[in-house]
Amino acid sequence: MHLHCHLASCVRDFGPVYSFWLFSFERYNGHLGSLPNNNRAIELQIMRRFTRDAYVNSIVLPENFQELFRKNFLELNRCTEIGIEVTDQEIRNLLYLSRRSAPIPNQDWSHISAYKFSKVSTHCLTAEEYRVLKHTYKTIYPDLAHMVLPESCRKCSFVTLRNEVYGSWESRHKRSSFIMAYWNAGDGKLWKMLVQGSAPGIVQTYYLHNLIVENESKVHLFAKVNWLAPLPDCYRYHCGKPVEVWSRDIYDVFGPSAFIPVQKIYCKYVQADGKLSEKLVSYICPLNSGMNI
Fold it and tell me: b/e for 35-56, b at 16 or more Cβ within 10 A?
């Protein structure tokens, strides 16, 4: 209310009203509040973050190693800064990759600069996860003869694309973990045929994994998904489009489709559990207009 009383003078002093209100003092407080912390000495943690980022940005790299390290320093800077600028062209490219008509093999799935992710932790892949992820890489990059897959990665609970939040079952954004994509073809296999439809799944967590190709590190952001098991068409389309009926608490086989690049996520959905012909089912309704980016 105090700002409203001085709105006219603020417009004269600071320019158009939109530029003044876009990044006001309260908005900046919201960004500061979104930074991860342990609720102890928050002011000290914020200042340490500022000084750390300023130090990283001021480092002069040795001439012999500039090309080798510059990329990683730029990625570190983009991932830790408050607010990531994403161009409209990047958004259009991401929306294209999520569509049914976008081919899966030989796309560059390492372009993840548009995504901002939560605080990460180190994770060691299990033998089964490593085997399945390796098969996933071979499917999306069939022309790569030599690639090195580390057994460790980084793990996070949710990612954001502009204003759109993609949660996971391990985060507090559980409702945002319900996704649909043209990816799972059943039995753990990847989607290949254009006649197949999208499948719903629940994101368990997110992995940041480095794929090393010709001594170059390419970071990929995968969602680990439990895909819902399909029902016969007489059940699936019982309610009529866009609502579909899928199995409840019964998931597809754990296979290469369990790891999906976040760029391939088509939309989110809402679900309601119920019964159909004495079967426990989930009623699925896609939110095609829910991409708030």
Answer: eebeeeeeeeeeeebeeeeeee
Count CB neighbours of 81 within 10 A. Answer: 12
Between CA 154 and CA 161 the distance in angstroms is 19
Whole-model pTM: value is: 0.71
User: pLDDT for 176-187, tens place per residue?
Assistant: 999 999 999 889
Other residues' Cβ atoms within 10 Å of the Cβ of residue 111: 18
pLDDT in tens, 151-163: 999 999 999 987 7
Reduced to 3 DSSP states, what percent helix, strand and coil does the chain have, rounded to the nearest 5? 35, 30, 35
Residue that the structure tokens 């970071």 belong to: 219
Of 242 and 194, the structure prediction assigns the larger pLDDT to 242
Domain ranges of the chain: 84-287
The torsion angles phi and psi of 47, rounded to 5 degrees, stand at -65, -35
Instruction: Give the DSSP letter of residue 230.
Output: P
